[in-house]
Structures are given as structure tokens and as C-alpha cells.
Fold each of these.
Amino acid sequence: MSLAVSLCQQSDYNPETLRLSLIRLLKPFGGIGSFVKPGQRVLIKPNLLAGKAPEKAVTTHPELVHQVILLVQQAGGLVTVGDSPGLGKPEQVARKCGLRAVIDATGANFAAFEDSLPVPFSGGTFHHLEVAREALETDVIINLPKLKTHQMMGYTGAVKNLFGLVVGARKARLHLQAGTDKAFFALMLLELAERFLPALNIMDAIVGSAWRATVRAVAIRCNSGHCWPPLHPRPWTLSPSGWLICRRTGSGHKKSHGKPAGRVSTSQRSPCSARPW
């Protein structure tokens, strides 16, 4: 099975160039209209780990979220943006990281992920799990992870970002359940991601962050052929300037397995590139 991935260079968060880059990024897949139909409820899931300023690169940059909201609205989608922060109350975190301002500016809804509902799982690492109500009441999930390191998983990507669908302190309990067993924690994340399969993942890899022993994030800019400071466990080899990375995983979250997008032909790759994951 080969799932298509589109890569597009983007050196900063300038609104105009970012909008154009997102359009080019999605072009190999047929544009945003391939994922969002008029009237559909769309949950945009950024990374809202903590209430840090955008330049700290701890959360998905608000301008990326802003431009994705606009694209979804232009396609006729009804947008809700939500996450369950690891540190702090959702409303406060959203304001501190600049996200609440762009949500209010677009007229989208903000979901604090305060209400949770039980979801049954068959076998695997757990038999049931409580997730945010909004994740169960949406038609489409668009996942916007931030490129960051992670102590257990090595780095945070599209799969790990969906852990934010688990509300509040329940995430901490699952961390404790996994303990130091990285394989168990990874399997748990995969089962969650399979159950709530996003239609689209767009990673903010323009500026990422690496966590140090001092428990503070160090912003990293991906340029000059690699990220500096290097992401643990080794520098990531990337072309000059930052990246937007897009992966099509399926037609929606309600199916257990998404339909593979297949390889994108060479003629579709310019000015962005698309390649198997």
C-alpha cells in the first residue's frame, strides 16, 4: 500500500505566501474540495500543548490554522477548531498561543474539549476510551500536527497529535498506564488514530521544536539542509527553508481504514513534491 505525501517549501508564516503554498500543497490531491463538501462539519485539530507564544514553536502556528480554516470555509465546510492541551485550560492556552484570535476572526467555532463520550474498542490495548464529544459529532477531521520531538516516541507527528482527542487528565492516566513501555504507548496511539482516521494531515514543519533536559522547548528552523538545533536523536535532513507536509489518509474518520491515495505522478509534483510516505 502506498499513501501519497505532498511536500511544499515555505520559509515563514507570511499569510499570502502560506495561503498559496497550501493551495499548491493540496493540488496533487484535487484541492481542499476533495476532502470537504458543502455543509459538512469539519473538526480542525491543531497541536495546543501549552500556552506558549507562536515563536516558541510549541504549538501549531496560528497563521497555518487561520489559512486552513479559510480554505475549508471556502469549500463550504462548517469549521470547529479544538484540542485538549497537556498543560493549562483550553481557553487560556488558545489565547496565549494566538489561536483564539484567528478563530474569532474567521467566525469558526472553538471547542475546548471539555465533554467526553465513551468509545468502545475491540481488543488491543484498551476496551473503551473516552474522547472529546466533538470528535464523534464531526463529518471530517483535518489534523494539523507540529513537528516536535517527543520523549517516548522520538517525535510528534500526525498520529501522536490525535492523542489530544482524549480529554484532560485522561491523557495523563494513559501515560501512566503505558509507563516506560514505548511499544505499548505506540500501539495505543495507532489504535486511536485508526479509529479517528483524519481525511487530511498537514504538518507544520516550517519551524519545529526540540525538547531539552531542562524541560523547555528550543525553536528550530529547518534550513541549510538540516534542522538546527538538531532534533533528537539526529538531525533531520531537509532541503533549504521550512516545509509544509501533507498526507492524505482517507475519506473521513468514521471508516477504520482510509482509501489509499496512491502515488502522485511526476507531472503533478511541481512546484511542490509528492511522494510515498
Amino acid sequence: MTGRRHGTRSLLIIAVMLAGAPALVANAAPQRGGATGAELPPAAGWQQAEALAVNDRGTVVGESADAAVPSTRSVATRWDRGGRATVLPTPTGMPHSSATAVDDRGDVVGNAVDSNGSTGHALRWDAAGRLTQLDPGSGDSGVVALNAAGVAVGWETTPDGSQTQAVRWDAFGRTTTLDPLAGATGYRPVAINEANTVVGAVYLADNSVHAVRWNAAGRVTELASLPGGGSWGATGLSPDGTVIGYSDTASGQWHAVRWSASGRITDLGTIAGGNWSTAVAVNRYDLIAGEATTADYQQNAVRWSRAGTLTDLDTLAGGTASWVVAINDGGVVAGYTSTPAAYRAVRWNGLGRATDLSLIPGTNNSMATGLNAGGTVVGYEWDDQTSSYHAVRWAM
């Protein structure tokens, strides 16, 4: 499954990011509760924590941080199924690190930032916690995704520092530089599947964005836009090679799109009366989750069937906007909703019913960041008064 990675309040994430399907039924009644939220404690000696990803075995990764707001130091952290936290080692001189993805073997990838706060470094830890720094050490780099075989994808600056290039690291840390696209000035890979296919976006000199796909050999193909489109990008990738993303249109609207493995583009459309949509996550059955605006400009979470039928997912009572994070192979979607008072983590089941995920004591906001095959959602919660962050895991 693929999905959006949301930043946190830490300096690390800000710096790096500047780097047979089930039937769907609409209009099911939203639910409150129904999911137990368990706090994942910070690693020993740290005061705050955020969970950012979970694998199908229940291992969670993220970061622990000091008590400062914003934090002045953070460390990549892994929690086992029992909720026990382990600090993952970070290279000397890097006061911020964060773990952002974990595969079912227990391999972890993440990023760290130098003491100057502006140069990122891509990192990998094996199941035993042994650290490998993936970049050469002197340039800027970031890792963004990890597949089931432990192959990671990300970016690094060129030797002269003039632009970024897309790179893929195998399970042993060996680097493959993915082919450039003529005229591109920068690269933002976003996803990798089990076949080592990579998708993402490239930036051109005219400030437009184009969607691209790299095959297992690293050869690049530019994907088509909708007719008249000037900017378009890829946001996710399924195991069978289906690519999802967005494209503008000749009329200036933005629409969610899907590219087949052969590169054929399909306009997924919008909610009736709306003029904007984007695809965020796709599962192995080509069910797609994303966001779209209504006729009165409210942003809702939506899901498209394999045939392209759009379902407007439930909005929590009082909700003013919803965002999607991920979708699993059962069609369960994780995300969050804003209300006039707070943000709330949400899980939508295969029937489209929304569950308002419970808060732990002492918090009034929650955010979902990850989802596994069993429907477990991870994320973090905070209180508006103290701004203290707490990592949370919500079981089914």
C-alpha cells in the first residue's frame, strides 16, 4: 500500500521534506469510538513521541523528542508489538533523526539532520538496529519509501550541489542513480513497489511538475498529462504497476488520475459539482483513496473503485475538511478530519463508515500517519495548551 507521509512539528521533518476488491457502500453513518488508542511511550530519557509508520507485524517506528516546543533534539525510535521503545542509533553530529518506514522483516529507513538544521541524510537500520548511512556523507539526501524486499528510494544532491537526483538503495545499501529526464532540474520520488518500479515527479525550468516512472533498470519514462495539462505528478504506486496522482486540465481544474502499467491515463473525476481532486493512496486491488472538493468547496475523503466509481466517504459531525493518509488491501482508509475545535484521526472501513479514533487522556487533537493490513492505525496526539506530543496506536 502507498500513502501520504505527513510532516510533524520537528525540525527534521521540515528540512527533509523540503524534500478481488471489496464492495463499497456510500452514506454509512459515522461512528465515534470503536477503536482503542494506546499510548506508545517515548524512549527512556525523552519526553515526547510521534508514531509515523507501522508494519503488518505491529512494529511501529517514529521519533522521540525532548520536551521543548519545537523540539531541539529528537531520535529515531522503534516500538515492538508490546509497545517497548528502542532508540535507533544516529551518526555523530546529527541532533535530529526520525524513522519513517518499516518493512515486515524489521528493516527501517529514516532521515537525520545535521546540527546546522539544513542538511539531511538518508539512514537505514536492520532488524537488529545496526545503522547504515545511505548517502556519501557530505551532500544532502532523504529517503522517502521502502518496499517489502528492503529496497529504498529517495533523493540526493548531485556532486556539484546544483540539483537533486533520484536514487534507489538496495537492501545492502548500494546506490543506483535513476536516469534523469531531459530538462529536469530536480526530482521527487514518492513510492516504490515490489518490482522495484519507482514513481514520482520532476521539476522543470519553467516551474512545472511532470510525473515520471522508473523501471527496475532505472530507465525513466515521462507519464502523460490530461489534455491541456501543464503540471502533473505521481503520488503512489500499486504492486501491479498502476500509478496514481493528479493533473491539471485545460480549464485549470486539478483532477485525480490513474495511469495503467502501459502508461494510459484515466481522469478519475471529482465529486458532483466540485472542481478539484487528488489521488493519495492505492492498494493491490487498485482501490484508490484521495480527496475531492464538493460544490460548496469542502474537502472530503473519497475512494475510487477499480472501475473508477467515486465514493464520497463519511465526514465526522462538524467536520470541515478531511485528508487521506493510506489505504490497505481490505479497502480500509486512514486519515484525519478538521473541525472548528480540533483535528481528529479517522479510520474509514470497507463500507465507508467513519470511526472517530479515541483520544488518550490529556489530549484534544489526533493525527493518523500510518495503517497496516490488519487495520491498525498509528499516529500522534497533542494538547493545544501544552503542545506536548504523544505517539499512539489504535487497534481494530
Amino acid sequence: MWNEKIPSSLCLTRTKEHLIINEADYIVFEPDDGACFSAVGRQSISCALPIDLFAPPGARIAVVKQTNNILTALTVGNDGALSVSWVVGTEEWNGPVPISPAGFAPSGAGIAMAKQTNDILTTLTVANNRALSVSWVVGIGNWNSPIQI
């Protein structure tokens, strides 16, 4: 069934986005005119989206299961802040929420993220000062702002 409410967080870049909901349903976002189209047994259904073009085209995104029920994504937005987005189960996505100051890293910078332990999720990014920086979260707590290592 078509749900006209599409979270703007699904459209993180200025590139054409495809969201596959299942084999019978997909959504295409066209950034040039800010419209989306769905195929759920009908063609060319469109709706206007309140889209905040948060990151540059081709921005790198790291995605890891934080817990059994939380999927976490990190990216560096247009403002150079490292930001986190997350989804619990099949609910709507949350964020992006900055976990670093603006200007921390180049917009769209590369990010590596992995489980350091069962309870610690760690990310590495090269900051604007060219230093390798680490940020982490323990359990479902707050992310620690990146520090140079």
C-alpha cells in the first residue's frame, strides 16, 4: 500500500534515489523537481517532498547494525559535521543528528565503521586537519564526538 509520507532522510544526496520496499513496490526520487514516484500497482503517482539536501552527491555512508534492532548510518554532511541517522526495526529513520562540530571533515568524506566489541560501535574519519579521528558509542548511549588519534 502506498504511504504518501516519505521521510526526507531517505533522500540524502542530490542524485537519483531508488528505495526498494519489496519486489512489487519501489520509490524513485527525482531531485531536479523534488518529486517522488511510486509503483504500487499504478504508475506515476507523485508527491512533493520537504527535502533537505543534506549531503553532496556521492557522499560516503557507513551503515552497521548497532544492536539487534537498531541500524545506524553515518555520513559527513554539507556543513562538514559527522552525523548519525538510525532506524529501530521497521520504524521511520531518525536524524541526521550531528555528533561533531561543523567543519570537522570534508563534506562527503569517507567513513569506516565497525563493532569494536559487542557493546561498542566505532567509526574512523580523516578530519579537515588530516588527522585520523575516532568516534564511538557504547550500547544505545550518546555518540562521543570525534577525537584525534
Amino acid sequence: LAPLGNDMPLGFDYQSVSCPHLAQEIVRYAGQPVAFVVADSSAIAADAVWFNSEFNRRTFLEGSRDFLRRMPDGVAAHDLNAVEDKSAVIPPGFEPCQIERPSHQGPLRLGWVGRFEHDKRPDRFCELLEKLSERHFPFELVLLGPRDESHDILNQIRNSFGNQILFDGYAQDRNEYWRWLTRMDVVVSTADHEFFGIAVCEAISAGAIPLTPDGLSYTEYVPDELRYDTLDEAARIVDRLRDDLQRPSVWSHCRQRVSDYEASNVGVQIDKRLSETGE
């Protein structure tokens, strides 16, 4: 941010407000009046406001209210209770995998489907792999998703576990993407930030069992016993999932929990909400 004149307001959108710490830093840096702008005020002006998860909705409203408490002159101008009343959770939907899962015997296959960026915390993923290796858990890796090829953590994973990597790259088309999803036994997230998790849902549809942090949007569809608070706990879950006889029933439960998020089902929700909004 460049310093502005003392009489010039500063505005930013809801993505900043939904991260209260960032909002505080902006206010502290600016040292001047700040205009509260919610996606160009669209949430306030809209007839309906949709969020892709309850976590997204809750953090938006909590972050916005917290921010407005720091800006008392702006409270009256922004009716967040009205925004909450007209809000709804409509998941973005995902296309389920269309490729049959091949049979597999051998080490547990762990999958990564996120960006190699700081908010997805690939450093924690690498640390988990190191913990599994220290405990002599055999595993193989499928590493999907966009990345900077020079990323330090990615190269660290390649150096430490290169002989265990089955695929490492960005799938060139949907069929290749699905094909590698079907090779995963467990899809791992170590993210700090996730408002939904389409790629995790796609991996579940392809036969993978999710292993995620206990928080964010994951609490809405990942069973309690597959969410972790610490990496040691995550390692213990991976150990349990090495049981070939238990995995099918565990996966079936996970698959059921994301079935409503399939695009065909979400489309029905969207049509219904649009008709109600237009009445």
C-alpha cells in the first residue's frame, strides 16, 4: 500500500475483511479513515448472497463485524444483519470422476491435489511424509496440481522421496487428471486456507479417503475421525488406513457425504434459489 493523503479514504474488498489479521494490518499501516467495501458493496445491494460453504459465510460475517466495530462511523451504513438474513450456502459443485478405479495391492498411495503455495502449507505435507518415513510406513505419492518447479518444498519432497513418486505434475487433460485421482488411496490436505475444497471432493469421488485439518470447510464433509489437529495425529490416521479391509467402508461413508455437492445436484439447488429470489 502506498501512503495516501490524510483526507483520502482507503477501500478494500471482502476478501481482505474475511481475514481479520490482514484487515488490522491495513488499518494500522494506513493510519487514516478506511472505507469498508464489500465486493463493491454487492453483498449489501444484492437480493441474495451465496457462499460456497458455511465456513466461508461465517468467517465473512464474523470478519466484517469485527472490522466494523473498529470503524464505528461506518456501522450504520452497512447492515450486516440484513446480509446474514439473505445469505445462503450453495456449494460450487464438482464433476465426479468418470474413470473406473483399478485394483491395487502394495504401499498406501498418498495424494496431493493443491497448489504448492504458502496457504496450502506444503511444508507441513513434507513434514508429515518425514514422520511416516521415520515410522517406517511404506507409501507412494501422486503429486497433482499447479506449481512453481523451483519451489523449495517440492524439491525437498522430490529429493527425499523421489523413488516413491508415481506422478509429479499438472495433468494435461481431465482424463489424465481423473486417472491419477483413481491411483490415490488417501488424499491429504495440510491447508491453512480452504473455503470449499473442490479437488478434495473430486479425489473422494475417485476412491480416495480424505485426511484433512480439523477446521476450515472440511468439517462440513470430512468425517471427524479423518481430521487431525497435529501431524502426529495425522500419521496415526494414515497408519489406521493401511488396513485394506477397512478402507472400502471408510471411503463409502466419505463418498456419501460429498454426493450432494455433485454439480448435477447443486444445479437443482441453484435453480430453486434463483426462482425464489425472483419471486
